[in-house]
Amino acid sequence: MAQIDEMRLVTRVARMYYEWDMKQSAIARQLGLSQPTVSRLLQQAKDEGIIRISVSVPQGLYTELEEQLVKKYRLRDAIVVDCSGEGDERFIERQIGAAAAYYLSRHCAPMKWLDLFLECNVAGIGGCDAPGPTKGMCASCRFWAGWLALRGRRMRAA
Asked: For position 75, what pLDDT does the model report?
């Protein structure tokens, strides 16, 4: 195949995948290629500069710094919370607490999350100080703690 024909195919495959959102298997079927060939052509498109991928990180997210922390300290994950311009300790605690709660809800089993959540709130990390039946937890946190406890009971019963 002549080089211009090869580049035409590489470009066509790249457009079908990235601009038309077609799956590699669908591209392969339509063009009479194997899926591994489509994958190789997409890699070639990257190597040739036909495809340039850039990620626009939203303001207030520090994924590059998080990745550096993970690499340097051999962590599984790291979260950097944007508290810039805020001198209010309660605001900072709430931001860190919210980030920690989100992380734990995505990565821990429900009952383990509840245990950690309660420990964090007793230590004041969560920033919840409203009075209520569960001392040290605001209404929103009590709701989620109850939901997780219920979910944990159902999971153990199953």
From this structure: 86
